[in-house]
């Protein structure tokens, strides 16, 4: 035990002075007699001297008591030192364990309890999946008799339900509620503990063809899909299939690479349209990701898909794709300044009566962060039609995005599109509002 600190003595003396002042009798002002005139004779007694004498007496008394306490503490410390030298333990308190028995450390007991608690919390996710809702409101101004979007619509409300199934798998379901009905955008089971570092998915999912096709509508940097996705991958929804996907990481030094193989039913529409149960669609994707510097990285992907179409017996459609993304995000100012440039090129080779239709489509875009919540962007695009390579659509768009928070987003897009099939040009203004509630898991990077 430490020796009595002199600072504590000063505090105790100050407390004694305060208590002494508080103990003095206080006479109400109303009962006091008027103060004598200056020329009156001074009273015989001195109240200030009396008060000083009382305080001195109290001070001497408490100094004596403090000295006694210090002496007792010194004697106790000496006794403990002698007992320690003789190897004898000091008598423990009644509630403590005997000193000769080594105390049980608290640290080892914590992990056991924590592991049990972690298992309980993980198990609770089995019965309480993460549920989220993302609303996507779209208003359109201008005229476009080709696409003819409504002037205002709650374009999509995505409900996400995600949970761990068991130690070996997790489930993800994304339901799309639109003004025309409900659809399962994605619903798959992911097996995360397979040998050979394999990652397998079974269910309905977006095909890993290119980059934009894998993104949900609310993750896109624009309120609409680029022309190559619409014309070559089966419409605004892109290529979504039901089947099996197997992926494996293929590290090459400090470069991240991943190979993905997928098998889908070829009867679900999109870019393919099979008529028999055995008509299947296949897709392969190879991705390379590398950090160039602390602030920049490069993402490159190659895709190839093949499947049936119903234009004639045994007709096939082959899809080829190249996607590229370059990101710049400084470590210190990344919250206020960043940029991303992305582009994709698709080629479709479709068997049909009269020969093979070879359609080409591409887009290039860029987004720049002006401030913490403000982004500007631009996009150029062009695409042939998969069934008519002579019909070519072109377009250009500019965007302005504001993020009030990570749970809401406001975006305006001014776009101009020329449709080669009808030789028609449309100018439109798209206004998008997105909002999210609930726990929504992160999408693949």
As for the CATH topology of the domain at 133-438, it is Porin
The computed structural class is alpha+beta
CATH hierarchy class name of the domain at 133-438: Mainly Beta
End-to-end CA span: 59 Å
Structure description:
With about 450 residues, this protein is an alpha+beta fold. The protein has a domain at about 135-440: Porin (Beta Barrel). It is about 20% helix and about 45% strand. The chain has helices at about 5-25, 45-85, 105-125, 225-230; strands at about 130-140, 150-165, 170-180, 180-190, 200-205, 240-250, 255-265, 280-290, 295-310, 315-330, 340-350, 355-370, 375-385, 390-405, 410-420, 425-440. A 16-stranded antiparallel barrel has the order 1-2-3-4-5-6-7-8-9-10-11-12-13-14-15-16. Strand 8 and strand 9 (about 295-310) form a beta hairpin. Helix 1 (about 5-25) runs antiparallel to helix 2. It starts with 5 loop residues before the first helix and ends in a 7-residue tail after the last strand. Residues about 20-45 and about 90-125 have low confidence and may be disordered.
């Amino acid at each position: 035990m430490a020796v009595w600190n002199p600072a504590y003595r000063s505090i105790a003396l100050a407390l004694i002075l305060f208590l002494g002042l508080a103990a003095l009798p206080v006479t109400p002002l109303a009962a006091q007699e008027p103060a004598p005139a200056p020329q009156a004779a001074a009273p015989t007694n001195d109240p200030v001297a009396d008060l000083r004498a009382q305080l001195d007496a109290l001070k001497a008394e408490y100094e004596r008591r403090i000295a006694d306490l210090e002496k007792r503490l010194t004697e106790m410390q000496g006794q403990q030192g002698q007992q320690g030298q003789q190897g004898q333990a000091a008598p423990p308190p009644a509630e403590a364990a005997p000193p000769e028995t080594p105390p049980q450390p608290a640290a080892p007991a914590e992990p056991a309890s924590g592991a049990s608690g972690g298992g309980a919390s993980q198990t609770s996710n089995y019965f309480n999946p993460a549920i989220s809702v993302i609303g996507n409101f779209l208003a359109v101004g201008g005229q476009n008799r080709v696409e003819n979007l409504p002037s205002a619509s709650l374009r999509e409300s995505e409900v996400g339900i995600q949970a761990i199934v068991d130690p070996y798998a997790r489930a993800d379901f994304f339901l799309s509620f639109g003004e025309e009905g409900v659809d399962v955008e994605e619903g798959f089971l992911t097996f995360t503990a397979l040998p050979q570092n394999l990652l397998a998915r079974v269910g309905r999912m977006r095909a890993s063809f290119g980059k934009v096709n894998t993104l949900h509508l609310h993750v896109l940097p624009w309120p609409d899909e680029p022309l190559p996705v619409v014309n070559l991958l089966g419409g605004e929804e892109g290529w979504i299939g039901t089947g099996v996907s197997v992926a494996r990481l293929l590290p090459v030094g400090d470069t991240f690479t991943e190979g993905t193989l997928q098998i889908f039913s070829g009867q679900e529409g999109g870019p393919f349209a099979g008529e028999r149960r055995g008509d299947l669609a296949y897709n392969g994707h190879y991705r390379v990701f590398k950090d160039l510097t602390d602030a920049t990285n490069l993402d490159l992907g190659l895709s190839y898909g093949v499947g049936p179409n119903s234009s004639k017996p045994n007709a096939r459609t082959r899809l080829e794709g190249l996607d590229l993304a370059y990101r710049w995000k400084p470590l210190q100012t990344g919250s206020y300044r960043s940029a991303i440039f992305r582009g994709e090129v698709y080629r479709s080779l479709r068997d049909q009566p009269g020969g093979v239709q070879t359609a080409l489509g591409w887009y290039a875009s860029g987004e720049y962060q002006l401030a913490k919540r403000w982004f500007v962007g631009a996009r150029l695009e062009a695409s042939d039609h998969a069934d008519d390579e002579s019909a070519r659509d072109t377009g250009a768009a500019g965007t302005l995005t504001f993020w009030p928070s990570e749970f809401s987003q406001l975006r305006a897009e001014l776009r101009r599109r020329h449709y080669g099939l009808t030789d028609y040009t449309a100018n439109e203004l798209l206004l998008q509002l997105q909002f999210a509630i609930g726990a929504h898991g992160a999408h693949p990077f």
